[in-house]
## 1
Amino acid sequence: MSDDPKQASADTAGINLPPRPSDPAAVVDSDNAASAKRDTFSPDERSHRRDSLEKHLQIRPDAQDLKNRNILHDTPAAPGLQSAQHELERQRAQDSLKKGLEARPDREELEERNILPQNSQSIAPGLQDKQRDLERHMRADSLDKALKDRPKPEKLVEEGILSKDEVPVEDD
């Protein structure tokens, strides 16, 4: 049996694990060896990678283009702090908008100040223009009727409502 609890449980389960190295430097050296083996490329592969990198660097957009596309920010803040600065600006704008919406007058106040028409919420928005036109025409018709039924100035003088010198002169 082994001193390592994982090795001991593996032994009892019938699984053979390789022994753990007691020296941590051996683990680091084996990781470096695997990494070095992975990073070794043939000369053709290195040449291809270099050409590909050069090609991508040639078509890389310049800093001003990235700023215009809002990828880079034109700010004096350190690059690591730019995202935090951007988030703070968004939060400030959001707070300002919330404050403005909270100070916004309610519907009743707007109706009292004649900014919104009275009882506009009970009619469909598509019909509100038609309703305003109808009300305007009804007022115009009522005014025309009242003007036609208006008494003549002579009758007003007879009833003592107007004096003779207040009678308007008619232009013919």
## 2
Amino acid sequence: MAGYDDDDDHTTTPLGDETSDEAPNLSDSRSIASNGSGSERHTGSEKSLTSTKSLTGSVFDQITENGRGYANNTYILPNDEAEQTRLAIFHQAFLLLLQGQLTLSRVSNNVGRILDVGTGFGDWAIAMGERYPNAQIIATDISASQPTSVPPNVVFQLDDAQQDWTYSDPFDFIHMRGLAGAFSDWSSIYAEAHKHLRTGGAFEIVDWGLIQLKKPSKDSHLTAYNEALKSAAAKAGLAIEHEHLQGSVLEGAGLSVFRTVVRDIPLGTWSTESQQIGLGKMALIAVLEGLEAASMRLLTRELAWKAEAVTKLCTNVKMEVTRPGTEAFVQCKFVLAKKLEYNSHEV
């Protein structure tokens, strides 16, 4: 969108109080019916007719490294049981942040096709399938670690979003969450999203950044952790904060940004706003459980740290962040975009 300014749309007001007249109505007359009653389940292993990819038995292999399990040799986050627990808490934190909603975008009950890229263990996709039983939900990941009993309108597929997307039918809504550090070339990811959205369809991406302190200290363990993580990510060519969420990056791939929301999330119970207490508790658990997950592979590989040193630093950060009187927070950023009717990227 011409004239988009990332800073102009910065807001820390409650998400539920915000409105946007520009938000697209995510409905489509091509909505599919569910495959049975609301209680019916399927295994998620069937092949979707709209993609060339499906889950196969070989994808269950896991690489063990420094006590954590990973899906492959490159992605920095693990996919083991501890990570599953963290992502489940992460999902609950977002439900609190969005006041029970699953998206910041306005999604119609008649929405047709939804794509969740980097679904992880599938919490969001499953919840969307239950909330929108007439929608077709395709959720992709590099790891087949999702449950086998899911709503009948949800299909999990093995897919690396860095490769060409192979869907033959466009989507009404494409969603990404918690993928900071996943890709080195975000422009190509956004270009694929643009290509596979229907005209007027919407795209939503959300990530939260590194832990911050209201009263930062250069000598803190948290500062050491953040600086080490940023140094390792830079060496690996990865964006681990909000660099990939800049409006110019999305618009360079053809998407038209119509809304950006930034929210500071307190970690713990120090906030004076009562509605923030529950969110702060949940976010604190998710963030602390993610310290080692986010840093172990990056620091040991890129900076040649010993695993024991990473674990020790994470332990010190946990103690520091939870110390009485400490006011820690993370900044969560939502970016909403749409595919316009006419776009030079389609010529």
